[in-house]
Amino acid sequence: MTADLLTTPIRHYSWGSTTALAELTGRRPTGVPEAELWMGAHPGAPARIDRGHGSEGLDTVITRDPQHELGGRVAGRFGPRLPFLLKLLAADHALSVQVHPTTAQATAGYDGEQAAGIPLDAPHRIYRDRHHKPELICALSDFEALCGFRDPRATAALWERLALPVLDPWIRQLRTAPADQALRTVLTGALAEDRTRGEQAAAELPSALADLASGADPDAATWAAYRGAALDHPGDPGILAAMLLNHVRLGPGQALYLDAGVPHAYLHGLGVEIMANSDNVLRCGLTPKHVDTAGLAAVVDFRPTAPQHVPAVPVGPEELEFLTPAEEFSLSRIELGAPLRIADDGPQILLCVRGTARVDGGPALGPGRSAYLPAAGGPVRLDGDATLFRAKVPRAR
């Protein structure tokens, strides 16, 4: 067998869309938010396959025979685990502002929490493994996000237009202090040291943002994005963290890469997301979950950074790859119109988002359906008229 049809779990988070995943897959919406569809071997929600002996989690299958499933190159580099996680992400409301650690930070954090006896499922646990979590999002619809710190002086100019006296001390910091110091002071102040001021600002911001978001202001789309996040999380001072970040809009087919230390939040839209197979997230607000401000300050990169848009580069007659520095994953898009053979010496996952494709003449992959290709399966033939995303492990960068 060269390909396994995946049975994929849906994650029901409150920020998810009630319609997007159902419409993509041709199902009737249930009315329940459907936020993410996971395709991979993450132990929290592994996809499942059936090779004639009953359904098994993909993580179990890989652990049993990593050489067959992953191949020598990938197993030797990453051990007996699939190093990436592929998802469909559907957001109707703002996700938490968050940041991911480097490998060194994740290792130190995990070992420290283990030594402290903090259970892995404790709500205040931060590090659940020793891995970093770079990620890439490729939009399937119009997609909005916040990503990377804007230059603090530009943020000061933006905030001044709100005419909220409660923001004045932070505006002065943003205008006069060195960039990294200013961003650190405002972020940690709003979440911890000056949280009362942060909560007051969060209460006053929606009405102040409304006028700017509804007029002919050149930054109306940015104001509207911030206002939407504030209304999604009323009273949460994390809105100040969100308003330090660049507002990003992606069209279908455009992609954004998030490396360690870069704060970000997805706001709205449907996309294909791929990441290193990790569960390490430090939250900066817009969430009822635990926020460790001191731990956050140790991980966040407080330098202003422009959003890292990722171009799609041709790697074959029908395939475009989104090139990133990540060692754990590579994502490409295939516009299938004629038979195509693909091969790799590592594991792969194929996700269909349009049309119908067949892998070696097997079951059809329609929109939202995916297949796992083990390393030992050899080359496979794709037929049909479809748009596919292909996830694999790149060779050494």
Average pLDDT over all residues: 95
Number of E-state strands: 22
Radius of gyration: 22 Å
Give the termini distance in whole angstroms: 30 Å
Helix content: 25-40%
Give the CA-based shape. Answer: globular
Going by helix content, strand content and strand pairing, the class is alpha+beta
Unreliable sequence segments:
none
Largest sheet: 9 strands, antiparallel
Percent of residues in beta strands?
25-35%
| Total of helices | 11
Write out key terms for the chains shown.
nine-stranded antiparallel sheet, single chain, globular, 397 residues, alpha+beta, 22 strands
Account of the protein in words:
The chain has 397 residues and is an alpha+beta fold. Helix content is 29%, strand content 30%. It is built from 11 helices and 22 strands. The protein has helices spanning 20-25, 58-64, 66-78, 103-115, 152-160, 168-176, 179-193, 195-214, 220-232, 238-242, 293-299, and strands spanning 4-5, 10-11, 36-40, 48-50, 55-57, 84-91, 97-99, 135-139, 143-149, 245-250, 255-258, 264-276, 282-285, 308-310, 312-316, 319-322, 330-336, 340-342, 348-359, 364-365, 370-373, 380-392. Strands 1, 15, 16, 17, 18, 19, 20, 21 and 22 form a 9-stranded antiparallel sheet that branches. Strands 2, 3, 6, 8, 9, 10, 11, 12 and 14 form a 9-stranded antiparallel sheet that branches. A two-stranded antiparallel ribbon has the order 4-5. Strand 15 (312-316) and strand 16 (319-322) form a beta hairpin. 49% of the residues are buried.
